[in-house]
Amino acid sequence: MTKYKFILSGGGTGGHIYPAIAIANELKLQFPDAEFLFVGAKDKMEMQKVPQAGYEIKGLWIAGLQRKLTLQNLMFPLKLASSLLESKRIIKKFKPNVVIGTGGFASGPLLQAAGSTGIPTVVQEQNSYPGITNKLLSKKANSICVAYENLERFFPKEKIVLTGNPVRQDLIDIESKRDEAIAFYDLDPNKKTLLVLGGSLGARRINQLIEKELQNFLSQNVQVIWQCGKLYFEDYKKYNQPNVKVVDFIERMDFVYAASDVIISRAGASSVSELCIVGKPVIFIPSPNVAEDHQTKNAQAIVDAKGAILLKESELDSQFSIVFEALLKDSGKQKQLSDNIEKLAKPRATQDIVAEIVKLIR
């Protein structure tokens, strides 16, 4: 039996790393003897998260372009050339059957190097609006797995496969974990629970909002799990109390989703895909500081299907408390949002992406 080898690259944020790990785990289930290697950007979070998941990783000297003229931008051509050379060396030594990119700085030079040596490549695009790297890589990629429809204007139509985004398999059945989750966080089972997600690093504007509204939540008999992010934990840990759980990073996402009744979240692609599977009422507050404003576009796709509420950062001061209070009091609206967002879920996304990868090696 052939011993397959796979290289995966995804990094910079959890939204790129966890899909890559989910794909590797599924490939491992199908090919227990396979060898895996991850390639990331030095000094980025993948250098910790990937080994924690049990995989080897090599780092490239690569970073993205800044929006203003900086020394980092002047170094970019040198970093890119160095990363392309290192990617070719890694590929020549490891000899992968397929190279898979889920986004992030390192996936650009790696997939470029693989394509130039004739090794099949798969691009997994999480967003409704692709970044420039994946647009460039799509020209040589063998298959492009996407999570949203109507991406023909960015990618070659014949290569697109609508799969959805890989999500943690432990989110598929969270209702059965509710009692365990409530106990884990020492919550009151008779109170509504608000879950606040700002991403692994945190979202300053969301944190400011929650700080301002905290007494409001408590006066409405709402308890809060507040993931403020690593960058902000020192600032907000003082709000920890019996009805407010302030955390920097969440390891057990299945528990926080199981415990929650209403969710406030950024609209990164992986978060949106997870929230579709979770099927709880969501208020999206997209980050306006991302390329092409893609978080707003991700959230809008759910809102168009009447599956969520969208509030822009600029609307928070005037609209948030009105919108939140109305949602909290309206169980019919909560059910409608839950039912509609759940219809958009693609729980088999990881298996469908792996099926596309397998086509290239058989």
Automatic annotation (TrEMBL):
<comment type="similarity">
    <text>Belongs to the glycosyltransferase 28 family. MurG subfamily.</text>
</comment>
<keyword id="KW-0133">Cell shape</keyword>
<dbReference type="Pfam" id="PF03033">
    <property type="entry name" value="Glyco_transf_28"/>
</dbReference>
<comment type="function">
    <text>Cell wall formation. Catalyzes the transfer of a GlcNAc subunit on undecaprenyl-pyrophosphoryl-MurNAc-pentapeptide (lipid intermediate I) to form undecaprenyl-pyrophosphoryl-MurNAc-(pentapeptide)GlcNAc (lipid intermediate II).</text>
</comment>
<protein>
    <recommendedName>
        <fullName>UDP-N-acetylglucosamine--N-acetylmuramyl-(pentapeptide) pyrophosphoryl-undecaprenol N-acetylglucosamine transferase</fullName>
        <ecNumber>2.4.1.227</ecNumber>
    </recommendedName>
</protein>
<dbReference type="InterPro" id="IPR004276">
    <property type="entry name" value="GlycoTrans_28_N"/>
</dbReference>
<feature type="binding site">
    <location>
        <position position="168"/>
    </location>
    <ligand>
        <name>UDP-N-acetyl-alpha-D-glucosamine</name>
    </ligand>
</feature>
<feature type="binding site">
    <location>
        <position position="200"/>
    </location>
    <ligand>
        <name>UDP-N-acetyl-alpha-D-glucosamine</name>
    </ligand>
</feature>
<feature type="binding site">
    <location>
        <begin position="13"/>
        <end position="15"/>
    </location>
    <ligand>
        <name>UDP-N-acetyl-alpha-D-glucosamine</name>
    </ligand>
</feature>
<keyword id="KW-0132">Cell division</keyword>
<dbReference type="InterPro" id="IPR007235">
    <property type="entry name" value="Glyco_trans_28_C"/>
</dbReference>
<dbReference type="GO" id="GO:0016757">
    <property type="term" value="F:glycosyltransferase activity"/>
</dbReference>
<keyword id="KW-0808">Transferase</keyword>
<feature type="binding site">
    <location>
        <position position="127"/>
    </location>
    <ligand>
        <name>UDP-N-acetyl-alpha-D-glucosamine</name>
    </ligand>
</feature>
<keyword id="KW-0472">Membrane</keyword>
<feature type="domain" description="Glycosyl transferase family 28 C-terminal">
    <location>
        <begin position="193"/>
        <end position="345"/>
    </location>
</feature>
<keyword id="KW-0328">Glycosyltransferase</keyword>
<comment type="pathway">
    <text>Cell wall biogenesis; peptidoglycan biosynthesis.</text>
</comment>
<dbReference type="Pfam" id="PF04101">
    <property type="entry name" value="Glyco_tran_28_C"/>
</dbReference>
<dbReference type="InterPro" id="IPR006009">
    <property type="entry name" value="GlcNAc_MurG"/>
</dbReference>
<keyword id="KW-0961">Cell wall biogenesis/degradation</keyword>
<feature type="binding site">
    <location>
        <position position="295"/>
    </location>
    <ligand>
        <name>UDP-N-acetyl-alpha-D-glucosamine</name>
    </ligand>
</feature>
<keyword id="KW-0131">Cell cycle</keyword>
<keyword id="KW-1003">Cell membrane</keyword>
<keyword id="KW-0573">Peptidoglycan synthesis</keyword>
<feature type="domain" description="Glycosyltransferase family 28 N-terminal">
    <location>
        <begin position="6"/>
        <end position="144"/>
    </location>
</feature>
<feature type="binding site">
    <location>
        <position position="250"/>
    </location>
    <ligand>
        <name>UDP-N-acetyl-alpha-D-glucosamine</name>
    </ligand>
</feature>
